[in-house]
Amino acid sequence: MKKRIFAALCAAALLLTALAGCNKGDGGGGGAASGGSSAAASQGSSSAGGTSASTPSSTGDTEGVQASPEFYAKADLSVLNGKKIGITIQSLQNTYWAGVMTALEEVLDANGADSTIVACDDSSATQIGQIENFVSSGCDLIMVHPSDAKAVEDACAEARNQGIKVMCWDDPMTNTDGNWVLNNTELGIAIGKNAAAFINEHYSEDNQAQVAVINYPQTTILLEREEGILQGLEEDAAGKYEIVSSQAGLDAIQAQTSMETILQRYPDCKIVVGIGAGAMIGADEAMQISTGGNIPEDMGVFTTDVTKQQLEHLQDPTYPAKGITGFEGSDEDTANGCASMFALILSDSLESQNVFRSLCTIDASNIDTIMAGMK
After folding, report:
1. What dihedral angle (degrees, nearest 10) is formed by the CA atoms of 237, 261, 363, 185?
2. Which pLDDT value is given to residue 122?
3. Which residues make Cβ contacts (< 8 Å) with residue 8, sequence separation at least 6?
4. Which of 271, 192, 206, 280 is nearest to 237 (CA)?
5. Which residues are 329's β-sheet partners?
6. For position 22, what pLDDT does the model report?
7. Coil, strand, or helix at residue 161?
8. Given 3.40.50.2300, 3.30.390.30, 3.40.50.300, 3.40.120.10, which CATH number is that of 184-326?
9. What CATH number does the domain located at 4-182+333-359 have?
10. Which tens digits make up the pLDDT trace of 348-359?
11. Alpha carbon distance 54, 313 (integer Å)
């Protein structure tokens, strides 16, 4: 079926990529996961019609089921055949969303769905209008990656009143049939434990690692993610490291500047943990410059999101990138997971309104496989 993507698939804006997969301006996907100012509207009644939304203190407070390969295997993608699907996301102006939406378009096309993918450019008013257009055009399912989850609750409720299925990517919204979300506490813990394993391999209580944290506490979910990182470090590497500095780094340029400042004061700092793609790319650049590309074996950078540039850094020995805590895996893996969510929702087979996305570690052992599935 013919697809229409009404936005340029630009691969340059790393400021937005820092929250990929997951959040306002992201990723990851986050790959960071809900809106940029506060935690999103929480789970409420899953019946059609408008209901008021409350706010959980963190994504870790949201109840739901954990996705897994077995969970996605329950989906019958033939359900997508002939279905009209409208997708509105925050932005296509970043590498994460450009890659994932390209892959999702291919999966939906291969399974006979007619999809339209639009970007609201982080405008709630624009996104509400897009949802209304999807309703009037007779969509069977609408997926929203909200600029502001609370702002689109009523529009989503109206869609459901018209018999249209609604899925949210990233936020535990109320007026949906399913939410595909990240537990940012658990994501942070996974990043911290990934770094802790490296610290345990190269450092000891008598030779503590100096650790820098590249964060962005202005954003609620990224503060939650940072707190998870610190928890994971302490659980697995207590006594073997010292956090010497925490600096903001939402995008690569800001992260590089922050890391250069840290290295001026702490030239022996060799471990970096961070909240997104920008943190890894920026820290990598600063540390490559400081070492002349001769990366010592006890130097490593650990973050989340999955972009081609991060993966290329993992493959390049002149950068200190050592591990990424990703989501489903590659762009194709994420697209297949999302399409499976569509099928489960359309067939009324979803076990819980909230489904937590699965996490995976990407490092030298599986980098080639992941790269093969990137767009």
Report:
1. 60
2. 86
3. 92, 93
4. 192
5. none
6. 39
7. helix
8. 3.40.50.2300
9. 3.40.50.2300
10. 999 999 999 999
11. 41
